[in-house]
Design the sequence.
């Protein structure tokens, strides 16, 4: 399943993210597109999508992007509470992932630069976002 969301601007740059390891029919996918490290730290999305988990792979497409650095973070809301559920020590208990397959450490999620992608003016960039649990 592919959904498209016009983010901002009039340029024709496009970012496609294929989300893998999806648990079909077990909660929606929340996809956040960040346009910089400061926005990521502040949890201020540039754009976002909520996608149905209809198969083991789902593609999110962001069109009309101005050239720049972007990063994608995804989680599958299996319990339907609209947030990434974590255990008592803050480790996610629902599937999550980042563009390019970036991973965090025992101390938290990856830095923005670890999953940032360069989107050129008028270009198309593709990435994979494997979900882990």
Sequence:
């Amino acid at each position: 399943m592919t959904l498209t969301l016009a983010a901002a601007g009039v340029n024709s740059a496009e970012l496609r993210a294929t989300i893998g390891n999806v648990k079909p029919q077990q909660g929606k996918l929340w996809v956040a597109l960040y346009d910089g490290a400061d926005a990521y730290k502040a949890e201020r999305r540039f754009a976002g999508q909520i996608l149905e988990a209809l198969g083991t792979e789902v593609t999110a497409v962001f069109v009309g992007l101005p050239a720049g650095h972007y990063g994608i973070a995804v989680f599958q809301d299996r319990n339907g509470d609209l947030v990434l559920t974590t255990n008592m020590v803050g480790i996610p208990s629902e599937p999550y992932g980042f563009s390019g397959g970036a991973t965090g450490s025992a101390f938290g999620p990856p830095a923005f630069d670890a999953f940032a992608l360069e989107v050129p003016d008028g270009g198309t960039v593709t990435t994979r976002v494997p979900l882990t649990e």
